[in-house]
Design goal:
InterPro entries: Cytolysin/lectin, Fruit_body_lectin_fun. The chain has one domain: Cytolysin/lectin (Mutm (Fpg) Protein, Chain: A, domain 2). The chain has 2 helices and 6 strands. The strands form 2 sheets. Strands 1-2-3 form a 3-stranded antiparallel sheet. Strands 4-5-6 form a 3-stranded antiparallel sheet, with no helix packed on it. It is globular, with a radius of gyration of 14 Å.
């Protein structure tokens, strides 16, 4: 991601066949992140990514997350497992984050 307004998603599958996505991005030159647990196997990053951005005059239903520009996001899946993304270098041109699954 080279500039403001960019983002990317990583989709994970654990050994039990559970899917989740970690989203990271830059909005107005500040980082943001999200976790989307409990996905169906058919829900891909390509399908989820547009929900973070406006399409025409309609805001994606996850657009508010982008606006919050959070440095940390932690959510639990339906089995109570924690998924966390945390930017440990959240300023400047090179941002770094850890993803913790517990």
């Amino acid at each position: 991601m080279g500039d403001s307004g960019t983002s990317g998603l990583l989709r994970f599958e654990n050994p039990q066949g559970d899917f989740f996505i970690v989203a990271v991005g830059v909005h107005v030159y500040k980082r943001w992140c999200d976790v989307v647990p409990d996905l169906k196997s058919t829900e891909t990053g390509t399908a989820i990514h547009p929900t973070y951005y406006p399409v025409g005059n309609v805001l994606g239903f996850r657009y508010e997350i982008v606006q919050k520009q959070l440095a940390t996001m932690e959510k639990k899946n339906s089995k109570g497992e924690s998924i966390k993304v945390n930017y440990y270098k959240e300023d400047g041109n090179n941002l770094y984050a850890t993803i913790t699954i517990a």
